[in-house]
Amino acid sequence: MADEFTTTVYYDDDADESMLDDTTVAVLGYGSQGHAHALNLHESGVDVIVGLRENSSSRADAEDAGLTVKAPDVAAAEADIVKMLVPDTVQPAVYEAISDGLEAGDTLQFAHGFNIHYGQIEPPEDVNVTMVAPKSPGHLVRRTYERGEGVPGLVAIYQDATGDAKEQALAYAKAIGCTRSGVIETTFQEETETDLFGEQAVLCGGVTELMKQGYETLVDAGYSPEMAYFECINEVKLIVDLIYEGGLMEMWNSVSDTAEYGGLTRGEYVVDEDVAREGMEQVLEEVQNGEFAREWISENQTNRPSYKQLRQAEQEHDAEGVGERLREAVSLGQSESDEKENTEEEVTADD
Ligand code: NAD
Ligand code: MG
User: Fold this and answer.
1) Are the beta carbons of 154 and 135 closer than 8 angstroms?
2) Of 37, 63, 210, 229, which has the highest C-beta tally within 10 A?
3) What is residue 142's three-state secondary structure?
4) pLDDT in tens, 237-266
5) Is 42 a catalytic residue?
6) In whole angstroms, how far apart are CA 205 and each of 210, 306, 314, 337?
């Protein structure tokens, strides 16, 4: 077991918010992350301008919250730190629209490294390029801040034109609440590649394939779809919650000895080292050599044909209908998801 951190973690005492005293931050976008960053910065006493398009439906929300809203290029020109919180796929176009407002010594800041790492945005050498990325969806960035807490975050410096880019990034992390929890130092490359790998191989791709294959195996063998859905899809949350709380051993200790022995002996029948590693290494290779990025960028330039097709197929998967009927018929962990649903409604995308 690894018993020492290999990375640096920063807390409140490592950050000096007075770095932002004469600083104006333009928060571009008012979605999941944007609303949380703008409101937290504002309440921390930082001058904030929200950058939104004229016809953006988030405009009223931001103004009602007491924030100043301007067009993205105007906000960026007036600001010292420009925070890119529009969707990653539209960031290159938004950058084109605001880049004239980046003066020497300004900072262009991200919450994800994709566009810098894969060269979709190439800022001039005389601006700082930094990342402050909460490791959490925006509604939690906001909610924890309001409670006097914070979510963990990442900090990375790609380009340090002023010599104090990191101090400024840490001050920003403090102003949105992240240093209350802990901010881990990383690089644009590491954040981008591990993020893509994680969501493809394990979190979003791996887990859903495992669920669907498990479901189909039971249904094809003649078991009822409802039972298959419970066992292979719905209950995953209960197991993941235990691992989230206390690691793998907390989970093994909480399930029955039969489940533990069965899991420890049979898990590898399904996700065996050779096959899994071969697939995962391929995923990682396509992330590292830019093949995935090229494919996704070209999808976005051609109106997303494969994306739409895959999404349609997923929507039509039998398990989706079964899950929907089950959620209507019995309450599947409603108490816990209610809290999330309520807060998600305040985070309306405006497109
Ligand atoms: P989002 O989709 O929730 O919100 C994007 C907002 O951008 C929209 O609400 C809208 O206000 C604005 N917008 C959309 N299209 C625009 C356009 N063409 N021009 C101008 N404005 C436009 O996005 P998000 O999930 O908050 O992601 C923002 C950034 O934060 C991304 O880089 C993402 O990778 C990163 N990030 C997200 C999360 C998360 O959990 N959501 C976590 C960490 C980092
Ligand atoms: Mg400027």
Assistant:
1) yes
2) 37
3) helix
4) 999 999 999 999 999 999 999 999 999 999
5) no
6) 9, 16, 12, 22
